[in-house]
Amino acid sequence: MIPRMRITHVTSLAIGLLLATAAGPVMSAAETNGLLRLMTLEPGHFHAALLQMQMQPDLAAQVDVYALPGPDLAAHLARIDQFNARAQNPTHWDEIVHTNGDPLEHLLVEHPGNVVVLAGNNAGKIDRIQAMVAARISVLADKPWIITTGDFPKLAATLASAHANHVVAYDAMTQRFEITCLLPRELVNTPAVFGQLVDGTAEQPAVDMASLHYLLKEVAGVPLLRPPWFFDIRQQGEALADVGTHLADLVPWTIFPDQAMDYRTDIQLVSATRWPTVISLPEFQKVTGESMFPVYLAGALRAGNLHYYANNTVTYALRHKHVRLKLQWAYQPPAGSKDAELAIFRGTQARVEVRQGAAENYIAQVYVIPTRPELHGVVAAALAVKMAALQMVYPGLSVKDLGDRFQIQIPDAFRVGHEAHFALLTRRFLDYVQHPESQPAWEQPNLLAKYFLTTAGVELARQNPQP
Asked: For residue 421, what pLDDT is reported?
């Protein structure tokens, strides 16, 4: 039994609209006490639950969930139940579940809270965000907000509406809180260590980033099931438009920190590609629990196998600095393998690299590599000064000399993991909601630039011959 959870049946929409028109949104007791009140809309991804891993002092325990009955809602409530029931630092969320009618329509009519979390199916996500922002509700939405260039004008309009309505529309970019992303940002912007970022070329870009993910993951021998719509690129998006959002966000955040990008002048696309991961019916059954391919995937079937376009590359110039992103989804990891990421930043004095492969036991490590052997001593001395300065923020950080490169030794205390990043993200979002003026001016233009790149990159890739 899920503790402190209520299932409500919404009153008729006509009555609700009448009341909303006459008196405006009903103010909850939580709001009158100065607390923010959370709403969750259609939680189709586990990220929606991760935002409630910890209680927040300025967030009411009551949470209104608007969703249709089904496995996605059941999985979400089960995760909240686990947080409430855990032995250490349990939460005490009171989930009030609304399951009648159209979830978005009823949320907008009842409006019991003032902030909403959205993480689920990506098709039409920007329409839902736009509607909530127009209703003066602050939104924390999981990526991606859009997956096609056709939705880009809606994105721009949504951000303009958020600004006009003094609410926050925030993208859940959790990797900004990852220590192996924070440290390269520090190092790349320390000329004594890095020098200056080179311009690079399409063949050897200034920034080279890649990620490899696996569709089938198991816990204790049991597959973690993915919803069947995950494999429909019209609902989930291709890799660049989906997981590529994180890499596209990190590039300017790292090499041009706190600077606004203009997608119309600062980005020049060079090339893009796409190719499928081929999935058999038995593989699909194992990763989804479904018995057959759904009808909406019929157009992606070839000889009985699903051709899932889950792989992309894009090469582009950002303020004349060449960048290459590569995103891949394979079906199942080889024995002992895990998801892996790579990032290379090329400077005139040193390269900063993040590697997470077999050599690192699939634990991301940060390296600094002098561009020439004679710079070893210079880079070593500059790193010592930089590490001393970083001790104020990251006590215990140190450098190991490996001969041809230096490895940054990161204490375990700072490797907090993906789930903990969501608590930090939630805290930042709530701070912005309460103090909208504190949100950096570069956030909105860079969000536009990010989604221009990911969607235009996919469009360019689709112009190439496909296997």
From this structure: 85
